[in-house]
Design a protein that fits this description.
10 strands; globular
């Protein structure tokens, strides 16, 4: 067991690694060398990475890939995708290629409102609190004028402040429910700064309110924080074609394919066990673009899954339907994304990712990201209702298995060729490696 250490964050990077090697890696030089191997050879870049977070000892690399041929609102894009899962980029690219000859993807931002809340306790007359709020609201807005000034120039700012009583759920609990526009920024720091000032102003002004009793003047702030649930920061993306343009085979006609596809999506609407995996596949595409563009994929995940459960049951984020001879597949999802601030101007690959997308504003990035999720889901369902998911997945996973066995270049070439016409399973890969090596 490692000893307790004080002042670890103040140690140099070399001393941090030395301590880890001594207490966690049994002074294994390979462990130390591995950490150092992943340092960037450019000292300036490495210092930049070191300062992104605390106690940095190395860099953790993920593949930075691209998926071409995305036709979105009649404009062609190559999507940057940062993800380690083997079949995701291939599936997205395949879906993009399929739909580019069928009109491509259509996307539109429905709204961009974000939410933050000041949570507080008030022990007194709710009616007097409501009177106080009416009086103090202009002061709340005035108190953040220095914070909102630049954001307002870009078309953002505070949209509304509401007093909400939640005493039926928790004794004496109230909140200021605040909505914001943040232009091309994700806006977390902006929103949280406004909320903390609202809280200070609320407490100060309460003490001056003559209608309050002495007890009522002591409003207690519990916390002030933005919400990652943004059901009013919404984007919709869709694809549509005639049924005869859908895949057909000896096993499934185009109409049967459409009906089976719609039923598969419907199952994810009514069965939470399926819906979770279904939506995870959507997030494979969305997270990959979000991460590549320097946005917060954890916030996006949390908001998306909350939205999937907004009706009280966890459901699919995508929808499919047949009307007359037309097949339509769509997604509606909250995406609070930014193209300025955060890592967008710091991380070199984030800059390149945004440049790859023609430097989109926040709304355009929302559209592109929603399309990535829809494409990923289309590819997954297409596989599930035809060949099954494992055929394509295992072929993409083949290289991972070969690398586990430290296959040589010649062995890889031979085995990749072999598995073009044979089913990939872990046991079969092992058998073929052993056969080659014997």
């Amino acid at each position: 067991m490692a000893p307790v250490i004080s002042g670890f964050s103040k140690l140099s990077k070399a001393d941090k690694i030395k301590w880890l090697a001594e207490h966690h890696f049994n002074n294994d030089s390979d462990a130390t060398n591995t950490l150092i191997t992943y340092w960037n050879s450019d000292d300036r870049l490495q210092r930049l990475h070191d300062e992104f977070t605390e106690n940095t000892i190395s860099n953790y690399y993920l593949p930075f890939s691209v998926a071409p041929n995305f036709l979105i609102n009649d404009k062609r894009y190559t999507l940057p995708m940062t993800i380690e899962e083997s079949s995701v980029v291939a599936a997205a690219s395949k879906a993009a290629k399929f739909w580019q000859s069928r009109g491509g993807f259509k996307a539109e931002v429905l709204s961009t409102t974000k939410v933050g809340q000041v949570h507080f306790t008030f022990t007194g007359d709710p009616e007097r609190l409501r009177d106080f709020f009416i009086q103090v609201k202009p002061e709340l807005l005035k108190s953040v004028s220095s914070i909102t000034k630049n954001m307002e120039k870009r078309g953002g700012g505070v949209k509304e402040i509401e007093l909400r009583e939640r005493t039926k759920d928790l004794d004496h609990y109230y909140q200021l429910h605040c909505t914001f526009g943040t232009a091309d920024a994700m806006g977390a720091n902006f929103i949280n700064s406004c909320l903390e000032q609202f809280a200070k102003t609320l407490v100060i002004e309460a003490k001056k309110f003559d209608s309050f009793s002495e007890t009522e003047k002591d409003i207690e702030i519990i916390m002030s924080i933005l919400s990652n649930y943004v059901p009013q920061c919404l984007v919709r993306a869709s694809v549509s074609c005639t049924i005869k343009e859908l895949p057909n085979s000896t096993q499934l006609s185009s109409l049967q394919y459409a009906e089976k596809f719609v039923r598969a999506v419907r199952i994810a609407q009514i069965e939470p066990y399926r819906a979770v995996t279904h939506n995870k596949g959507i997030m494979n595409g969305i997270d990959a673009v979000v991460l590549a563009t320097g946005n917060d994929f954890r916030a996006i995940e949390a908001g998306a899954h909350a939205y999937a459960a907004k009706d009280g049951t966890y459901r699919s984020l995508t929808h499919a339907e047949i009307k007359e001879d037309q097949f339509t597949f769509s997604i509606e999802i909250p995406l609070a994304l930014g193209t300025v601030g955060g890592l967008t101007s710091l991380h070199p690959l984030v800059k390149l990712a945004l440049q790859l997308l023609d430097n989109p504003n926040a709304k355009k990035l929302m559209e592109i990201t929603a399309v990535a999720g829809l494409a990923q889901n289309f590819a997954a369902i297409n596989s599930l209702i035809t060949t099954g998911i494992q055929q394509g997945h295992m072929k993409m996973h083949l290289m991972n298995i070969l690398n586990q066995f430290e296959a040589t270049t010649i062995e890889k070439e031979h085995l990749v060729a072999y598995f073009k016409t044979n089913t990939v399973t872990h046991s079969e890969v092992v058998a073929q490696i052993e056969k080659l090596r014997s």
